Amino acid sequence: MIYKYHTEHLLPVTLEQAWEFFSSAKNLALITPPEMEFKILTQLEDKEIYEGLMIDYTVKPILGIPLHWQTEITKVNKPNSFSDKQVKGPYKIWDHTHTFIQKENGILMQDDIKYQLPLGILGQLAHALFVEKKVREIFQYREKALNNIFGVKELNKL
After folding, report:
1. Which of 57, 91, 105, 131 could form a disulfide with 127 if both were Cys (CB 3.0 to 4.6 A apart)?
2. Are 73 and 81 in contact (CB under 8 A)?
3. pLDDT tens per residue across span 108-138
4. pTM of the full predicted structure?
5. 103 in helix, strand or coil?
6. How many CB atoms neighbour CB 122 within 10 A?
């Protein structure tokens, strides 16, 4: 079964500021829950992301078990959107599109994720028991972290 997750967040930044922050993989650690111990393994010398860029990292999403994850940047539409997909990792499918839309009072940042777990019915059970909740918690943490980074006084939901 393929699952979908969508979230959006209004940030008081310019389109250029949003692109600069979110298109840098180095900033992922700043918006990932600390208990996940997110670590980038790839030497990221280029500041600009590009289609075909492969990024390796480790993360501990559940029970402190380290997982190797590799993503590929599959589409770049600077400064409006980019997409990445998991090449190696815990999911059978993980496709994530980041979209930035200019609004009167800032940038509406949207995350759209399509994902599928391996192991058929066992994966569906894992999703119901804890994966869906964990995905939601990661993006809730991300929202709070972004509010701190960009000086937003209160959480905003659209």
Report:
1. 131
2. no
3. 999 999 999 999 999 999 999 999 999 999 9
4. 0.90
5. strand
6. 10
For 21-41, write each residue's pLDDT tens digit: 999 988 999 999 999 999 999
Residue 158 belongs to some domain of the structure? no
The CATH number linked to 69 is: 3.30.530.20
Residue 79 has pLDDT above 60, yes or no: yes
Strand 54-59 relative to strand 39-40: parallel, antiparallel, unpaired?
antiparallel
Rounded CA separation 124/36 (Å): 22
Q: What is the sign of the dihedral through the CA atoms of 70, 13, 138 and 114?
A: negative
Count: domains in the chain? 1
- Mean pLDDT throughout 52-65? 89
**Contact present, 78 and 96 (Cβ < 8 Å):** no
